[in-house]
Write a structure and sequence with these properties.
With 317 residues, the chain is mainly alpha-helical. Helix content is 43%, strand content 5%. The strands form 3 sheets. The protein has a 3-stranded antiparallel β-sheet, with no helix packed on it.
Length: 317
């Protein structure tokens, strides 16, 4: 068999073989170009979706902006707080301080960060004879957000009027006769209040209240409101929050004779460390009793700051 016959035998196709070969070529071409077709289509669809999303966001931003005038001063529920209303957030610089909502001026409300519209509502409420009897009454103000209410309520200090019937319990906490569950925290005497009275202060729980009373008892009483802030575990931020509600009617404290107190008795006082207690007793044994309070400064372990604190609680007899 020659080369021509061999080539003819291997490369000569019947009609069915030529059709099958053609179909295979078509399938290969389709498989090759099909991914490119779908890729272009997906990109086009994503572009259309992104455009539609952007247009939708623009439309919602335009229509969802809350109106400034979102309540009517002439409604019968002018002063009722509505927690379902979404108010616009005003990042107004503000400062917090104790205030009486019945007498606070416009400038005072502005310092607290309250918007003008809400201030006007409060003024309308007061001008029509409305009065805040307890801190929770702030919720009656229409337009005051829950965030502002929670921020302000710990600083409400309502001054009672002469015609209001008041009763003071032994803890120094003032109650309204009409509503014995509402505490007026403006008149808490730090030397008279017990743990239950301190618990009523913002940020003070059972443990902190017990620590304050225990610290006061070990000292022999407070001679300054600032001493409350020295209580172990009481953060300065919490002390600053309760400070406006603290009062000191009597600064008289319990004193001890430094000439007869033992080292253990001296060490039991919060202001006298064991080094100071031992040094005082050693000085007394070597130089005799102290003739005046200032002689404590002669003890080497006693610094000027120590003497300033200790001197309020000692006597020399």
């Amino acid at each position: 068999m020659g080369w021509n016959d061999a080539i003819r035998d291997y490369f000569t196709f019947t009609r069915k073989e030529r059709i099958g070969l053609l179909l295979i070529i078509i399938v290969i071409i389709v498989v090759f170009f099909l991914p490119m077709f779908f890729k272009k289509r997906n990109v086009a669809e994503i572009t259309l979706i992104d455009s539609a999303l952007i247009n939708s966001l623009k439309a919602s931003t335009t229509t969802a902006e809350p109106a400034e005038n979102d309540f009517d001063d002439n409604q019968t529920s002018d002063y009722q707080f509505d927690s379902s209303v979404a108010y616009s957030v005003h990042h107004t610089p503000s400062e917090l301080f104790a205030f009486d909502p019945n007498t606070l001026s416009v400038s005072g409300w502005k310092k607290l960060g309250i918007r003008d519209k809400t201030i006007q509502t409060i003024l309308n409420f007061r001008n029509k004879g409305g009065r805040f009897k307890k801190a929770n009454d702030l919720q009656r103000i229409y337009g005051l957000s829950m965030k502002d209410y929670a921020r302000l309520v710990p600083y409400v200090a309502i001054e009672t009027t002469a015609d209001e019937k008041l009763r003071a319990d032994v803890t120094g906490t003032i109650y309204h006769i009409a509503d014995k569950t509402s505490h007026n925290r403006s008149f808490l005497d730090i030397n008279m209040a017990d743990t239950s009275a301190f618990i009523n202060l913002p940020g003070i729980g059972n443990k902190l209240a017990a620590r304050i009373v225990n610290f006061r008892n070990k000292l022999g009483g407070f001679y300054s409101i600032e001493q409350v802030g020295e209580t172990f575990g009481l953060a300065d931020s919490t002390f600053q929050k309760i400070k406006p509600f603290l009062r000191l009617a009597d600064s008289t404290v319990k004193k001890f004779d430094v000439n007869i107190a033992s080292a253990d008795e001296l060490k039991s006082h919060p202001y006298i460390r064991w080094q100071i207690a031992n040094a005082i007793v050693a000085y007394r044994q070597e130089h005799g009793t102290f003739t005046k309070i200032e002689d404590i400064r002669k003890v080497m372990a006693v610094t000027a700051d120590d003497f300033k604190k200790i001197s309020r609680y000692i006597v020399v007899q």
